[in-house]
Amino acid sequence: MNRREYLKKSFAGAAVLGAASLGLPANSFAAKVAADTWHNGEYVLPELNYAYDALEPHIDAQTMELHHSRHHQAYVNGLNTALSRLAEARENDDFSIVKHWSRETAFHGGGHFLHAMFWEIMSPNGGGEPRDTMLRNAINRSFGSYVGFKRHFKAASNAVEGSGWGIMAFEPNSGNLVIHQAERQSDLTLWVTQPLVMVDVWEHAYYLRYQNRRGEYVDNFMEVLDWDKVAEMYEAAASGR
Ligand SMILES: [Fe+2]
Predict the structure, then answer these.
(1) 164 C-alpha vs ligand 1 centroid, how far in Å?
(2) 129 CA distance to ligand 1 centroid (A)?
(3) Domain check: are 140 and 233 in the same one?
């Protein structure tokens, strides 16, 4: 097995980020975006459904071309590189720079997924207010009115500090919609993932028992981690229940 084959196998075996391993509802938009850009063990740049000049005059053709072919491609490349380095780290059992590649995975992965969805939600025939009754009801329920949503979304997007995104998202517990400001692409996470295992490493979670020995705390967390529960969550997410 050569290195490339190993890395592909390693991705699949470790269930890192492949569409089948995202833990997303199978019919969700994010899952579709992920699946559409995952080919032969790596992520690829999705094609646009329209020409670069199709969104003129609102978004100019040159911006679209640079944004898609250069910027988005760079995120795809960065994500693949980061995943490859993490696979090497596992192969060599050397996690000395795992922090760096984890950040790179989050940054480029966030960039890739957000752009892939961004292209999908734009259209030359777009604009106006939502017509779908379910979506209108959700917006009214969540923001009071369409105008309320629009004012909130614009204000939040305009006020993102530095580079980043304004995002309206589905919050599955309440069934409501929420608006995020995402500085850069993410805060060390990917917007399309659904958390399955999480450990709180704020000092409030371990200081009384472990003081500054966070590693010992995490070791002990693994001893109480309920994998049956994690499996239950995963199966529910993957089947869209
Ligand atoms: Fe962008």
Answers:
(1) 9
(2) 24
(3) no
Identify which of 94, 100, 64 has the alpha carbon closest to the alpha carbon of residue 81.
100
Count of domains forming the chain? 3
192 alpha carbon – ligand 1 mean position (Å): 16
Listed residues 79, 104, 127: the one ending a domain: 127
- The per-residue pLDDT for range 8-28, each reduced to its tens digit, is 444 433 333 443 334 444 445
Q: Compute the distance from residue 19 Cα to the ligand 1 centre, in Å.
A: 22
> How many whole angstroms separate alpha carbon 113 and alpha carbon 108?
9
∠ at Cα 72 (192, 14), nearest 5°?
45
Specify the pLDDT at position 162: 77
204 is in an annotated binding site: yes
Q: Is 200 annotated as a binding residue?
A: yes
DSSP structural state of residue 204: G
CA 72 to centroid of ligand 1, rounded, Å: 7
* 11 shares its domain with 123: yes
Ligand 1 centroid to Cα of residue 75, in Å, is 9
Confidence of residue 195 (pLDDT cuts 50, 70, 90): low
- Was 67 annotated as part of a binding site? yes
For residue 220, pLDDT beyond 60: yes
Residue 47: predicted pLDDT: 94
DSSP code per residue over 29-83? HHHHHHHHTEETTEE-PPPPSS-TTTTTTTS-HHHHHHIIIIIIHHHHHHHHHHH
Helices 146-158 & 133-143 angle (0-180, nearest 10): 70
Longest dimension (CA), the chain: 60
* CATH code assigned at 183: 3.55.40.20
Distance 236 CA to ligand 1 centre (A): 32
